[in-house]
Amino acid sequence: MTEVKVIGAGLAGSEAAWQLAQRGFSVRLYEMKPAKMSPAHHCADFAELVCSNSLRGDRLENAVGLLKEELRRLGSLIMTCADATRVEAGGCLAVDRYGFSGMVTEKIRNHPNITVVSEEVTEVPEEPVIIATGPLTSDELSNAIAAYFGHADYLHFFDAAAPLVSRESINMDYAWFASRYDRGSADYINCAMSKEEYTDFVRELASAQEAEVHGFEDKNVFEGCMPVEVMARRGEDTLRYGPLKPVGLKDPKSGKEPYAVVQLRQDNAAGNIYNIVGFQTHLKFPEQKRVFSMIPALHDAEFLRYGVMHRNTFLNSPQLLDATYADRRNPMVAFAGQMTGVEGYVESCASGYLAAVSMAARLNGEPIPDFSNLTAIGALAHYISDASVTAFQPMNVNFGIIAPLEQRIKGKANKNLAIANRALAHLQMIMNGDRYEDHH
After folding, report:
1. E-assigned strands of 1-77?
2. Where does residue 368 rank: exposed (0-12), middle (13-18), buried (19+ CB within 10 A)?
3. 129-131 and 333-335: which strand pairing?
4. Do 151 and 14 lie in a common domain?
């Protein structure tokens, strides 16, 4: 039985290990936790969700909803565990973070073809190997990967996690349960702010003291996970058009949309912990308490975890990797997860899946499945491997990277749904082993 090493048991590594094991390979899964923990990790389980507990939108008109459906149909471990541990969040797929990670860990540890090795890897191992050590790859392994590629052409940015508050400490006199536009069930706690309250809040937020983060500058912030205080500094209305937008949320007390709304989302199955949506931050802890308590519903909030800022590291993938996440020079060495420049939980899972099934096909001497940019999973892989990209930045899945339709369809939602249905039809043909003739 051929042995494949997988380094890192996050979402990408866990998915890769599972897919290889399911295809009959012996997998040695290396994970440094719990012997060594990164600044963002808090538990010993695999596939730990270090930021939000949401895997984002679940509708097919949403690109990440399409990606999730593709992964479900392909037998993804991560999606199986996410669906089994979901908590209500309107039109989003959110999970009980500890229940989810616990289920992934149990399934991995109980698979007869997977051996878990609890130690840190500091060198690029012998092939075949998939390296999925995430955005928090240790300095030693980062240096080893740079040496492996022959240069230190790494990029880095900073990522942030939002604070958590206890449900019982939220003042519901200033808040109500609802989902935007009343879609799905009323799963968010919406905290209203008047114009005066919002203006005061933004002023204090923009001038609040930040924790020391070496090398942090606004221009280096990745737009998809921008600290809330950075948004506040970009203009008084930036937050009102971002995470605090009131659109589609009517206060039942007044029957009108408030000036601004802070949303809280359930973070665990018990429903006693909520996270402040979009409030990734690297303010000092006392400053978080002071400023975030200016939100009327959170005036007396109990903060169970403050927001934290941590370093993210990713490869210059367009110059280094192919559309199967493998080294262009040696496809028996592959990478997966956020270190490849895919951004987000589901995207990391998708990269782990594709890296694993591609390596399995190579090892078996079989054709590598070509998902192409007609599918969300294929489009992500094509994005990170597009050698024409010169200023590479991490990317969430979106319809802009999926091949456009040949016919015009009126309405964005209708167009997106048509792209999604075409993607799922193409995926089914691949799963059936059929060729799909298309100029893309």
Report:
1. 3-7, 26-30, 54-57
2. middle
3. parallel
4. yes
- Same domain for 297 and 366, yes or no, is no
**Domain end (from 306, 336, 365):** 306
Q: Evaluate whether residue 406 is within a structural domain.
A: yes
Helix, coil or strand: residue 92: strand
Number of domains in the chain: 2
pLDDT by residue (tens digit) across 150-178? 876 666 666 667 899 999 999 999 999 99
Q: Is 109 inside any structural domain?
A: yes
Within-domain flag for 440: no
Secondary-structure breakdown of the chain: helix, strand, coil percentages, each rounded to the nearest 5: 40, 20, 45
Q: Which domain, by its residues, includes 262?
A: 163-306
The CATH number that applies at residue 187 is 2.40.30
Regarding whether 118 and 16 lie in a shared domain, the answer is: yes
User: Which two three-digit tokens encode residue 247?
Assistant: 């659109």
Q: What count of Cα atoms within 13 Å lies in the side-chain half-sphere of residue 173? A: 5
Residues 26, 149, single domain; the answer is yes
Residue by residue, pLDDT tens for the chain (440 residues) are: 789 999 999 999 999 999 999 999 999 999 988 777 766 666 889 999 877 888 888 889 999 999 999 999 999 999 999 999 999 887 788 899 999 999 999 999 999 999 999 999 999 999 999 999 988 788 899 989 999 998 766 666 666 678 999 999 999 999 999 988 887 788 899 999 999 999 999 999 999 998 875 444 444 555 556 889 999 999 999 999 999 999 999 999 999 999 999 999 988 777 888 999 999 998 999 999 999 999 999 999 999 888 877 667 889 999 999 999 999 999 999 999 999 999 889 999 999 999 999 999 999 999 999 999 999 999 999 999 998 877 687 888 988 889 989 888 988 889 999 999 999 999 999 998 754 333 23
CA distance 284 to 370: 47
At what angle are helices 77-84 and 63-73 packed, to 10 degrees?
A: 110
For residues 154 and 7, membership in a common domain is answered with yes
Both 297 and 327 in one domain: the answer is no
Backbone φ, ψ for residue 174 (5° rounding): -115, 20
Distance CA(54)–CA(264), nearest Å, equals: 12
Predicted structure pTM score: 0.75
Query: Is 50 among the domain residues?
Result: yes
Check whether residue 281 and residue 425 sit in a common domain: no
CB 281 within 8 A of CB 162: yes
For residue range 48-60, what is the model confidence (pLDDT) as tens digits? 987 788 888 888 9
